[in-house]
Amino acid sequence: MSSRVTLRLQPLCCDGSILLNSTDSERFVGPNLSVRGFELIDEIKTELEAQCPSNVSCADIMALATRDSVALAGGPNYNITTGRRDGLKTNASVALLGAHTVGVGSCGLFRNRLTNFNGTGLPDPSMDPDLVAKSTPLTFDNAFFGQIRARRGVLQLDQRLATDEATSSVVAQYAADNDLFKRQFAIAMVKLGAVNVYTGEDGEIRTNCWEFNDN
Which residue ranges does the record assign to the Plant heme peroxidase family profile domain (predicted)? Predict the structure, then answer.
């Protein structure tokens, strides 16, 4: 299972709506076009429906798969409260963006920083011109924070974490302490998984993650 897949999926949508396969769903909106791995969630859901139908929601599957893939990539293993239906402090927000430590970026999301930043015809001055630092794209660690402190952040949003006075001190802490980052990330993921959760009679447990149930 790819941690790049699940780390994109869960923060994007805690209620599983990004899994819906319709032309007007958020699955097909701009930045989400680069999200991959929907078939993994579908395979897990198919097996669960065969063993215990209508018991485990797609939102829970995403939360649990994300937790497991983070652990397999060397990140923290944390407890997940299940029971979601389908349907943060500064340090927590910074920790969640630290998920960008795993995976690669789509060129369309940062091309303007390379050649024509804000219409200047020049690269983004906050970016290191070389931008070829050694990295660990398949390992969950704090390398991301060292990269953005060295002006090697690919996404503009990431780079701003290192320069904004509201977040720069947190970035420095995480860059210096891998264990601290992992602990804070685990706490933030648990909190994220509890945001706007559907339970009980709210929402539903889909039979297929890519479509609503017939009511």
Answer: 14-213
Q: Residues 32-41: pLDDT tens digits? A: 666 777 888 8
Gap between the Cα atoms of 87 and 82, Å rounded:
15
- Residue numbers belonging to the annotated binding site for heme b: 100
Rounded distance, CA 189 to CA 3, Å?
14
The pair phi, psi for residue 46, each rounded to 5°, is: -60, -45
On whether residue 136 sits in a domain, the answer given is yes
Predicted TM-score of the model (pTM): 0.56
In a domain, 100, yes or no: yes
**Residues of each annotated binding site for Ca(2+):** 15, 17, 26, 101, 136, 141
One DSSP character per residue, 54-102 reads TSS-HHHHHHHHHHHHHHHTT----------BB---HHHHHHHHGGGGS
- CATH code at position 42: 1.10.420.10
Q: What is the pLDDT of residues 142-163, one digit of tens each?
A: 998 998 998 887 777 788 889 8
84 found inside a domain = yes
Residues 208, 41: Cα–Cα separation, whole Å: 10
